[in-house]
Amino acid sequence: MCAEPHRIITADPALRRMTLVAIVVVTVVGVAGLVYTGAFLERVQALASDDPEEAAQLAARTFKVLTVFMAVVPIIVGAYLGQVAVRAWHHAEFPPPGTRVLRDTIVTVGPRSRRWALLAFVIALLLVGSSIFLPLWSWQLTDRLFTFGGPPFTP
After folding, report:
1. Suppose 127 and one of 11, 48, 74, 82 were both cysteines; which one would form an S-S bond, judging by CB atoms 3.0 to 4.6 Å apart?
2. 10 touches 102 (CB < 8 A)
3. Residue 3: inside a domain, yes or no?
4. What is the model's pLDDT at position 1?
């Protein structure tokens, strides 16, 4: 009895280029952020000597904005992964038909594909859930830390 040949999804060169561009953009933004961080901290420190409350509010606002921006990418990735997982479950193929891949990938079919789809769905839920929960939690913590007039961790 001959085994069924494996189906392979070939790598998408355009996706590879887009991924490379995304990595370069994230690296440039990260380096620019690191450079700006030093100047920002000096500004907050100078402001703290004149108006400590305003310096604390500036630091808190900046931290809140950064947590929201850092949540955007995992939400997008989680939403896409969730869509792939649902399609994989529906077609009983992982990756599902029409999925673009970075390298040649053997398609898993049957029960194993459903396990991969379930794992992908759980990871997608964790990404989206944590990307919503962590900014909300950090905002609350930031408000507690930068509230003047009392200890920061009192209920």
Report:
1. 74
2. no
3. no
4. 46
Rounded to an integer, what distance in angstroms lies between the CA atom of residue 12 and that of residue 153? 51
Tokens linked to 150:
């009392």
Identity (one letter) of the amino acid at 99? T
CA 89 → CA 99, 105, 128, 130, distances in Å?
A: 13, 18, 19, 23
Token pair in block for residue 48? 């703290």
Q: Collect contacts of 113-119 with beta carbons under 8 A, ≥24 apart.
A: 113/88, 114/88, 114/89, 116/88, 117/85, 117/86, 117/88, 117/89, 118/85, 118/89
82's tokens: 């969730």
Assigned domain for 155 exists = no
What are the 10-residue block averages of pLDDT along the chain, 155 residues in total? 71 95 94 88 87 85 87 94 97 94 94 96 97 90 71 45
- CA dist 28 and 34 (Å) reads 10
Specify if 152 maps to a domain: no
